[in-house]
Amino acid sequence: MEILILEDNPTNALILKRMAAKVLDGEIVVEGDANRALALCHERRFDLLIVDQILPGRTGVQITRAVRQIDAYADVPIVMVTADTDPSLSLEAVAAGVTTFLTKPVEAIAFREVLRIHAKPRLAEAS
Description:
Blueprint lengths: L2 E4 L3 H12 L6 E4 L2 H10 L4 E4 L8 H9 L9 E5 L4 H10 L3 E4 L4 H19 L1
Parallel strand pairs: 1-2, 1-3, 3-4, 4-5
Helix pairs in contact: 2-3
């Protein structure tokens, strides 16, 4: 399973990567720039994206819309993790194609459960 974490804060990125590694096997790529992350999505197919909302270059909602335009990403789970608690953001994010919306600080058990849920269909496909 290949995961892309799009998070510009190095500390947050490290925390998310460590939590994801406890649940999922495979490569975990961390990118802090939304435009470079989008280029990576054009180059290869990740099985899961974890996206922050506030990023250099684009917002998480904007990157989600752009990723959803790539045919290979039509059904790839996108988990948004953000400190923004505005209720309208979660609605906008889901409308853009976010699968699951979590607020920071992320609770480790809930985060890992979300990853397990989204990984199950991918792991079954790989069998």
